């Protein structure tokens, strides 16, 4: 396994651990310099450059596919305001 492949695998594992997704390389790094643009990531997602490549991740309090759309999660205050009690 070459060093570039190994680096790519390690980077993918790192990104997976941070709940981000690598953006397809060819779409924003054609000139060798990667940048985040308004269309790099999906709705309710943010872009950051990690290892020279754009990585999309959902905003805090959101979940989903950061390349297309992240959905706002229910707030914890709502969950605590209306607790569910079960009877055994």
Index terms:
single chain, alpha+beta, Secreted protein, signal, 28% helix, 88 residues, 3 helices, Laminin
Topology:
Elements: H1 3-17, E1 20-22, H2 25-28, E2 45-50, E3 53-58, E4 62-65, E5 69-72, H3 76-81
Antiparallel strand pairs: 1-3, 2-3, 4-5
Signal peptide: 1-20
Protein name: Secreted protein
Keywords: Signal
Describe, in plain words, how this protein is organized in 3D.
By secondary structure, this protein is an alpha+beta fold. The protein has a domain at 20-75: Laminin, CATH 2.10.25. 28% of the residues lie in helices and 26% in strands. The strands form two sheets. It has a three-stranded antiparallel β-sheet, with helices on one face. The chain has a two-stranded antiparallel sheet with strand order 4-5. The radius of gyration is 18 Å and the shape is elongated. Mean pLDDT is 71; it is low at 9-18.
Strand composition percent: 25-35%
Supply the CATH class of the domain at 20-75: Mainly Beta
How widely separated are the two ends?
56 Å
Shape, per Cα inertia axes:
elongated
Rg value: 18 Å
CATH architecture of the domain at 20-75: Ribbon
Biggest sheet: strands, sense, closure?
A: 3 strands, antiparallel
How many beta-strand elements?
5
Q: Pick out the low-confidence regions.
A: 9-18
Specify the structural class. Answer: alpha+beta
Spatial order of the strands forming the largest sheet: 1-3-2
CATH topology of the domain at 20-75: Laminin
Mean pLDDT across all amino acids:
71
